[in-house]
Please model this.
Amino acid sequence: MSSNSAVLFNVAKCIGCGSCTVACKLWNDLEFGENNAHGFDAKLSADSWTVVQYHTIENNAGQNVFRFAKRQCMHCLEPSCASVCFANAITVDENGAVVYSPKKCVGCRYCLIACPFDVPKYEWNKVFPSVMKCQLCADKLAEGETPSCVSVCPTGALIFGDRDELLEKAHAIIATSAATENMEATHYVNEVYGEKQAGGTRWLYISDVPFAELGFPASVPKKSIPGIVHDYTKWKPGVFLGAAAAFSAIGLYTKRRLKIEEEKASENGGENNV
Amino acid sequence: MSKGNKKEKIDPKLTRRQFLGLTAAAGTMAALTGCDVVDKVGGNDNWLPTQYRNSGNYPVNAKGRIPIDPDNPSIMRIDEKCILCGQCIEVCQNTQTIHDFYKLPVLDTFMCVHCGQCSLWCPTGAIQEKSYIDEVNEAINDPEKIVVVTISPGVRVSIGEEFGLEAGTWAQEQMVSAIRQLGVDYVFNIDFTSDSTIMEEGSELVHRLTNDGVLPQFTSCCPGWVKFIEFYYPELIPNISSTKSPVAQMGPLVKTYWAKKKGIDPDKIVVVNVPPCLCKKFEAKRPEMNGAKRYWEENEGTDYGNMMDNDYVLSTRELAKMIKSAGIDFVNLPDGKFDSILSEGSGAAVIFANNGGVMEAAIRSAYFLVTGEDPPEDLYHLTPVRDDNLDGYAEASLEVPGFGTLNVAVCNGLHAARTLCEEIKQGKRANLHFLEVMTCPGGCIGGGGQARETVPPTDHVRKARIDSIYAADEAMEKANRVSYKNSEIAILYKEFLGEPLSEMSELLLHTKYIDRSKSVHPKDTSDYVDTYFSGLE
Amino acid sequence: MFDYTLKINKKASFRFTLTRWILLLLAVFGIFILIYRLINGLGATTNLSDEWPWGFWIYMDLILSALGACGFAVAILTHIFHVEKFKPLARRALLMSFFCYVLVFLILFIEIGRWDNFYWFFISGAFTSPLYEVAICITLYIIVQVFELLEVWGDRYKSWVKHITRFFLPFFVLLACIIPFGQEAAYGALYLAMPTKLNVIWYSQFLPWACLITSFSGGLCFVAAEYYVHNRHYKKTSDDAMIRSLLRVAGAFILIYIVLKFVDLSVRGAWTEVFSGSASGNMFLVEFIVGSLVPAVLIFSPMIKKSMYQLIAAGCGILGVLINRFDFVFVGMADYANVSYFPKWTEIWIVIGLTALVVLVYLFAIENLPVNQGKNDEKPDIVSRPPTGIIHLSKSEQNSVSE
Model:
């Protein structure tokens, strides 16, 4: 299996059946709980690693239509959560899935607050809680299978494959739709969400309605967040070494000057030191 | 003796307490040493149906499930029970041609005609009827309210199955007793409105035949079929008879005619229908189903706000559930009788529950309406539309004196209906005069609200119910087997409605249909012509 | 009637006044809740949620760390720049800083969800995480401080310990002056990972360095304020001139911060947000005026000669740091979270209890360790009123318990 795995979600093909949310819960053995994992108020939670959010949006023809946004971990190429985890409990596996290891987790919850897509959730009511988020079915990937949600999608809204190939495919779909003059046909927004967001993600989205209306955070920087933090971290060795060198030099110099002053004072026979 | 026995019993096994103790100790040890922690989140019970466990991107045919609107008035799904077996898609797509018969992206609706077949096919019971039991119980317990329960013909041959009786057992009398024991004030028979349906629909057919109206006329008793046409074939809406379904006729009659006769404030009446159908739950909520309110407004100047004709709709399964919750010994109940003036039904009304029944009933009366004579013997057993109609389609031609050859057809299952619609659209069935369509295989006896005797439903069960219904018709006296001889119907027309298709009938017993084609981009199925019944032409 | 002196041995004793009994009570109460939290988890004891994964405890860590910079700031002045007049403050600042960081560490321990796994980060080597930098630097710094304090302890109780530690001291002092650069700046860097969440007023690459600079000024102001309160409590005269010079150094850092923050806001064009009237903008104005402009004006005006204005300036300096951290932990994040958060009483009382405990230990330490080396400090730190009784803990004096 390609190590560059990715999933393309075509918003225009989703019918909101919620099969993916059930498959996720079946495979990962998650509680179903009171809140549906699909619906108008569906939200990611510790028990719902993927949700299908229902939206009513005005389409090109001015008609209010249903659109469904499947949300889950975006599996960034350079994941913020993994880079800020101070126990290395979140890592990127050989298939590109961003996976979490509860054995290593200390529970600082930095990943929750550092994720630009607000994906990781916490088991607040447990004594020793874990961070809960989509693992891209890493165990299924390892056996050469597709992620659970992709495998059950009845309409082909989810496609699993190589990231570069999927990107090519996505752009081809967008280009074809842009070229068609039929007003009735689906016209895709000229953007693949996830191609550049946060430095690129393994979940890619194409849609015929603006992503912001589907609840996707619009202001996520194109630069990866580990990259942004690195802009600061890169100065650190220099600061430490520079401070060590400077302090040593200053310390030696001021000590010597102090000694000379003391000597001068004693030469003058003055008793009136500070 | 006892000593030896005891020793044998205890020694080789651990007691439950010992076992629990050991388990706890082992658990604690494992927790302390960190052995029990699997280094992953989520549970350890990783399972998906095998079809989803293929390597790579191989195609899978049975995949996923149908979408269900959270606001769907008929069905709901409990996610926790769903195993993604694909059965709902199987029936929705292949039997009913709803799922996957529209182009993506979706528009402003979750495609559904509320037939409820998925709730019969779902092996785990994840898809269920949306239950109104609580609301009905509340109304029963409210001394202010007068609860009127109306029972459709199909229910009486299926409800017995819920109590261990053989499939198709006729259980009308026990059912009526049971409903009375629930504390319901009046029990009426939908057979009555079935007969009024025949009067209206038959008259409408005759009117169309004699006035060059749009033909073929489609029956309108099945709300699922009606919604199917509204979605996929809006150009055929004029073909649908404007007559309301029998269930939809009962509410307005109860809240006008009966209420006036009894001197009851219609606002206090709670009409609870028990059809074998889940789509009736949807039909009752159609905004135009408020004829009684309009009647009071126009004729008496009384405003009853949001009063709808029918208040709640319970399926056969829900009624059985209520009877079971009340602890009623259904099988051994004494015979109960319907309350009078809205309950007399002809044999023609009883067979409404079978696919082909509406047609047969309509023909019997239409024959009378055209010729003024009682129909000939073979119209009391319209063989062509009875035999093998579980295949989905049957047709018959009959000679009517004074008119000529009348071509009629019956079909069930929307796959067959879709094929027929395509053919009609393409002008291939110009000779057809009257078409009965039932959404559910076998007609109402196979309705989505019926008992889950087998999962998925089988023709064996459907056949048993069909036979039971026809037997009930045959068992009646000949004079009672035609709608126009229903004495209560005659009184209704004399006292209240005037005559079929009168202004009052139009207000209470007829309706309008909505073009829903803006909500769906249908897939092109024009090549469906001749595919379904190639052997029948 | 609650006023007892606890005699541990000939050199060490601790006086329990009414206030200290109350502190003890609070500490015991806090520890009970702490145990309750460890047993029942975060959901039962905090109002934290997926929208507010970080709350009051993280804020306490941030401000205690900023105030804890006092040890490191004074150490640089006395041990690196060899400013002799600040020498009397060195050990006391070290002690204050040590207890701040101990408190930070304790709160971090209750703050993490899987405290059974707390050791893991030591071996994780997660060098990309600012939080890792914080944790490692604090750990190292506390170890270094323990070593430095051993020297202080040996000074009075075990002379061979003093001799050994003095030999290695220069090396440790150098470490103590460098390591805190890590955590103080990294606290700001924590929030660099939230470009879409933190308000534009605070979010910039300057944030870590702003934290570093304000921790200098805040720490020095904290030393000045403590010096004041301390001398009042033990009825000793203060060296106003020394504090004035100390505040001048703090003022210099405040000036640097003002200039850099001004440049930062101007370069990024964030002034519109400052004056937009939003909660964030207004809070920034409060922070900037109260915490930076007022102390800067006070310190560099003649008023600073009066001890009262010194106290006000130091107080404003501290307040500035507190508000600044409050702003980017809560105010700047609130718009994004879109859900309100107020700490649960258990969250607050654990912190109060732990603080009470640490204050008690601090008082014990300051009364029994040779940390005061100023010219007014020949007199030991003793509560001047006579106690109602003395309790002897050492065996030789056990029989003589007086009323």
Summary: Chain A has a mean pLDDT of 91. Residues 235-267 of chain A form one domain. The helical segments of chain A are 19-28, 80-84, 110-114, 138-142, 148-152, 163-179, 225-233, 236-267.
